Amino acid sequence: MIQRPRGTRDLLPPESRLWQAVEELARTVFASFGADEIRTPAFEPTELFVRSVGETTDIVHKEMYTFEDRKGRSLTLRPEGTAGVARAWIENRLHDRSHPLRLYYIGPMFRYERAQQGRYRQFSQIGLELLGADSPLADAELLLVLHELFTRLGFDDLQVHLNNLGDPEDRPRYQQVVRETLAGRREALCSDCQRRLDENPLRVLDCKVPSCQVIVADVPPVSDVASEASRQHVAAVEAQLERLGVPFVRNRRLVRGLDYYLRTVFEVVSPRLGTNAVLCGGGRYDRLISDLGGPSLPGSGFAIGEDRLVDVLPEPFKERVLGARRLYLVPLGAPAQAEVLALAREWSRAGVTVEVELTGRSLKSALKRADKEGFAAVAILGDDELAGGVVAIRDLVASSQQVMAAAAVPDWWKGRG
Ligand code: ATP
Ligand code: MG
Hints:
By secondary structure, the protein is of the alpha+beta class. It has helices at residues 15-32, 46-52, 58-63, 82-91, 136-152, 171-182, 191-199, 210-216, 228-244, 288-291, 306-311, 315-322, 334-349, 363-373, 383-388, 409-415; strands spanning 36-37, 43-45, 65-68, 74-77, 101-110, 122-131, 159-164, 249-250, 262-269, 278-284, 299-305, 327-331, 354-356, 377-381, 390-395, 400-405. The longest helix has 18 residues, at 15-32.
């Protein structure tokens, strides 16, 4: 038997309904703040990610699905969404448009990681990018939109962790601090961290190896060496969040796994997710577009891990989605079967979720199935009903039965709430 590749998943009903509902709500909330969707390719030239995410990050160093096509071009399945959006912005000359521009995306990302619960090789992200605004207000809006989405999903226990990474000009000074602090303990670090210490010391702070985390705890926080301008920026973001009542905590140890971030960085953490607790990551990336050869354009954004989000969805939201009412339309006999789809079309156009019995089940067997499958009601269409333009409705929730005009069913359906 052929099996799916390791680290990938089949999303089956009814769980796929949760995914749809989450995406629908995300689209609604994003659009209500002026965002539009962007769809970029699932693969890009490898160089795009090397230059944006950063050569020495874990993603580029060991997690990318990179391959040569038939003409020998090096391509990579996108490991994240921001680089593609930045490339598209430059390539499609979006600087001609009025800014700021709010762009969101929903789609699969690919990383060669150790597969486990909440960590997949194909996973989905819901991301929002805000391009062309360098103000603290822009970061605050992003966090507000994020908070709004999570609130409408019914979360009340998520934590936003916020930090200041400083400006790129602060980076060399901080790298020096990290190197000096860890100089005497180099041998105690994992081999990855020893390499990071040489190539990109900031990355050491991101190491997941417990013994490294203990050692790294002595390194002064990155925000200690941050420029005054970046401090004022992040302080202004925090002031906005306080005014809005968007809860956050200052996490001075937070760095992110991608090189393009500066100043504001944040993560959303769920207490209900064990080791893969991070539901969302984001921050400001004012140099990304110019680093990729475009004009100077500030930006900030976030990406939610949809797989992890769906894993911890609040029960009321799940019940609302999975408990959606369905009507089971059962034709009895050939004349009813001839008419049943036209009737289903009429009801479906009027907003009824109607599922037609297609296999010629007897009434008894159909009722049994309706019970088992959790239909809210059964509409029975036999010879007599057909002749009278009516259907017999069995309300399985109220345990009642009645005959009504077929045309009246949509109103009745809506009325029962
Ligand atoms: P982690 O620290 O868990 O590896 P990350 O910092 O690599 O996460 P980001 O690049 O910030 O993740 O991506 C944003 C979000 O995408 C993460 O917060 C997470 O929810 C989700 N995500 C990242 N990698 C995976 C994966 N392999 N499987 C499922 N979700 C993922
Ligand atoms: Mg990762």
